[in-house]
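Follow-up to my post from last week.
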Amino acid sequence: MAVESVERLVGQGPPYAHRHGDLALARRRPLCKPAGPSIQLREFTVIQRFDTGPRMSEMTVHNGVAYLAGQVAEDDSLDISGQTREVLAQIDALLARAGSDKSKLLRAQIFLVDLADFAAMNAVWEQWVVPGHTPARATVQAALANPKWKVEIVATAAV
Amino acid sequence: MAVESVERLVGQGPPYAHRHGDLALARRRPLCKPAGPSIQLREFTVIQRFDTGPRMSEMTVHNGVAYLAGQVAEDDSLDISGQTREVLAQIDALLARAGSDKSKLLRAQIFLVDLADFAAMNAVWEQWVVPGHTPARATVQAALANPKWKVEIVATAAV
Amino acid sequence: MAVESVERLVGQGPPYAHRHGDLALARRRPLCKPAGPSIQLREFTVIQRFDTGPRMSEMTVHNGVAYLAGQVAEDDSLDISGQTREVLAQIDALLARAGSDKSKLLRAQIFLVDLADFAAMNAVWEQWVVPGHTPARATVQAALANPKWKVEIVATAAV
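User reply:
Got it. Predicted complex:
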C-alpha cells in the first residue's frame, strides 16, 4: 500500500502500533486500558493520503473511511459507457490501495454532464457494483471542468 | 430495524457482540481488553445497508454515521413544498430505521432544480428541523434525473 | 472553542470525560473496561454544532470529523479570486474553532458558477492548501442561491 503521507493527529505516549509495525491496525483500533482509577487511554488518529499533488489528493483515508476525489476518465474521447468504465476502474484501483473494494462503498455522488446519459451510465454501473452491497447514491446534472468529460463520480467507502 | 445486509469487515476472534445478541451495540463499541503485555484487542466494523437494490441502497450505516441516498419525492406531481415535505418524511423514515432521527443530522446537500424554489423549500425545511440541532447544509441548483422532480436532498447523520 | 450544542447520543454510566473536564478528549476516546465475564463498556458520542441557526449550522463535528456547511463569500461584490480567498478564510476560521486546520482536510466539494473561473479559483486554492496535505477534491459547475456568489466550497476535515 503506497501511503504518501501519514500524520499523527493525536498522540499520547509512544506510537504504540508503530512498535508493532502495523500501521493499518493502529488506524482502526483505539488502544485502551481498563477503566478505573488508573485509567490511561492511548490513541492516535491518522490521515493517509494517496497521489497527493499541489492541488489535491486522489484519496484520503481517516477513521476507517476513504474519501475519494471526483474521478473522471483518463481518455476523454470515450463515450459515456467508456468513460464510466474508466471512472469505475479508477475507483477500484484507489480502493485497493486503501485495502478496500467496491463492496464496501458507502455513498457515491454522480455528476452527469447530460442526463440523457443516465441509462447508459447506469448500465455500466449496475454491472460493476456488487449485488447486495450497493452504496447510497445520488445523481445530478452538472457541467465539469473539462468539457469533454461526461461523468464524474465522488465515492466514499469503508476501509 | 430492518437490516438488509451486515458485513464483518474486520474480525479477530469470535464475533463477540453476536454472542450477546446486540448488533447495534457491536457497531458502535470497539471491544477492548486491558492494555499491557497481554493486550489483545477485538474489533469488527460493519456496514449496514437499507433498501438495497441492484443500483443502490437507500442508506448505508458505518462507524456511527448514516449515509443516505439522494431522496426525491414519490409523488412528482407535487409542488416544491409538497415535494420537500415528502423528501423530509423519507429522511425521517430512513433515519428511524437506523435508530437515528433528524436531531442528529450532520450535513445536508440540497439540489434544487430551480433556485426560484429556494424560499419555499426553506419554509418547509425550517419547520422540519429541530431548533438548536440544525445540520451543516449546502444548496445548489442542478437538474435531476426525473424532470418532474424539483428537489433532491442527500443527508448524512449520526446514529 | 465555542460549542453551541453538545449532545450525548449514547451514554451508559456517568459522563466520564465530563468529570475530567475534557470534552475534546471524550469526543474521540471510547472509554473501555477490560473484556471478560464482567465486561462493561462505557462510551458516548457527541455532536458539536457551531453557529447554529434556525436553518443550519455552519459546522457539525462528530466522531473526529468536521462537516462544514457550504461556505460562500461575505462580500459578494468580489471577483472569483477575492471570493475564493474569503471562502477559504472562513473555512480556516471554522476549522480552528473545532481544533483542526486546513492540513487535516479530508475532502472539498467545490461548486463554481462559471467554470471559466476554474483557473483563478485554483490559483488561490493552491496558495492556500498545505503542500503534502491536500484533500480529495471535486469541482463542478452549479448555480448558487445568491446570483452574485461565484464559488461555494463544502469542506470535510479530521479534527
